[in-house]
Amino acid sequence: MVLGGERRQDSARAGVEAARGEYVLVHDVARPLVAPELIRRVLEAAREYGAAVPTVPVVDTVRYMDGRGFLRAEEVSRKGLVRIQTPQGFRRELLRAALEAAEREGLYLTDDAAALLAQGMPVAAVPGDPKNLKITHPQDLILAESLLTN
Q1: Within 13 A of 48's CA, how many CA atoms are on the CB side?
Q2: d(Cα 148, Cα 95) in Å, to the nearest integer?
Q3: C-beta of residue 101 within 8 angstroms of C-beta of residue 119
Q4: CB contact at 8 A, 135 and 142
Q5: Which neighbouring-strand residues pair with 127?
Q6: Residue 22 binned pLDDT confidence (cut-offs 50, 70, 90)
Q7: Is 62 helix (H, G, I), strand (E, B) or coil?
Q8: How many CB atoms lie within 10 A of CB 12?
Q9: CB of 86 closer than 8 Å to CB of 54
Q10: pTM to 2 decimals?
C-alpha cells in the first residue's frame, strides 16, 4: 500500500515506484465495474506492445460550446475519436520513465497513457467496455447500481 499524491500522476508514480513486477495496471477507483476480461485484454496488449489502454468509440455528435452557453456551428469529427478507460497497462519501466519526464516538463496528465504519448511513445488501443463506466455524477451511481442488479 502506498500513499497517493495531490494529482493523479503523483499517485500513479508512487504506485509505479512501489511495484516490483515487469508490468503495471493503473485503474481508477471511479470505475468499479471493470470486468476481468477487460483486465486480461489490457495486460495481454501491454505485454505485446509495452503500453495499452481500453477505448470506446465516440458515437454521439460532439460540438463545441461558446462561453455564453450556446453551441458553435462547427462539428467535431468522430472519425477515430475514442473515449479512454482504465485499467491502463504498461511495462513498468516505460511508465516510470514517462512519468518522470512529465514531471520534469511540468505536464499535467489526465490519464497515464498521456505520459508516454507526450514522449512520442506508442500506446495500443484495445476494445473497452461500455459497462466500465466512470462514476462522476450522482446519476452515474444510479446507472451502476442498475447494471449490478440486472
Answers
A1: 11
A2: 33
A3: yes
A4: no
A5: 55
A6: very high
A7: strand
A8: 24
A9: yes
A10: 0.89
**Cα distance between residue 126 and residue 115, in whole Å:** 18
| Residue type, position 101, single letter | A
**Which amino acid does the sequence have at 36?**
P
The DSSP code sequence of 73-113 is EEEEP-TT-EEE-S-EEEEHHHHHHHHHHHHHHT---SSSH
Supply 59's cell numbers: 458515437
Tell me the per-residue pLDDT of 84-117, one tens digit each, with 9 for 90 and over: 999 999 999 999 999 999 999 999 999 999 999 9
d(CA 143, CA 31): 12
How far is residue 90 from each of residues 3, 26, 52, measured CA to CA in Å? 21, 8, 7
Give me the percent of the chain exceeding a pLDDT of 70. 100
